[in-house]
Design brief:
The chain is of the alpha/beta class. About 40% of the residues lie in helices and about 20% in strands. Helix 5 links the parallel strand 1 and strand 2.
Length: about 260
Amino acid sequence: MSDYLKHLLVRTPLEVPAQWLRELTGVWERRRHPELRELHRESRHVNRLLRRRLRETSNCIDVGCHIGSMLSVILRLAPGGQHLAFEPIARKARWLRRKFPEVDVRNCALGESAGEVTFFENVERSGFSGMRRHDCGDGTVVETRIECRRLDDEVGEGHAVHFVKVDVEGGELGVFRGARRVLEQQRPLLVFECTGSGLAAFGSTARELFDYLGELGYGVFLAKDALAGGAPLDVAGFEAAQRFPFKAFNFVAQPD
């Protein structure tokens, strides 16, 4: 119910005021943990970067849509683009299709290989759902079988892709491995969530993900550094950013 109520605010005049209210309610937490200052600024840096980099006709892909917050940003900045969205939870996919009729919303997961997989949905905290069971504290977890596809199979040859956002609770490496052709040929800007606990749930490491993106010619950045034209992270910096005090939960990757 909480997710549904939040989803109802997306793409309405109340969406921005709700975001401001959330910022205000986080003031006390930010004062308690000043060492996490950059983490609290992360979403603002990402949004500013997208405002700078996306054009009206940019084609975007949202992998792991949740309630559609990033799709709302994409549609504001690139209303003339051809957009794809992937959401494995069926009811959320239905919400998204109603909210974003101009977007091609596909009810499936993305990964390295196509096939049927087990999906672990956290009923109370659905944002922690994924293709692996997460140690996220409370919440009832329900297992279902869902379809998993490869992004390379979903995007046609010659279809331009300018931006890809990935939030799949630790399965980022699998998504990128299944998108090798798209990344090599189209060279889109990437924004992806990455946490040590998420990677561990899939048996992968930050170094593996960093090395794979490097193999494809991508540098990995903190959002503030990508926005300022700063230097990319090295692998030690990428690993350290995922340890307390966290530097980021979401990273930017762009071609060298």
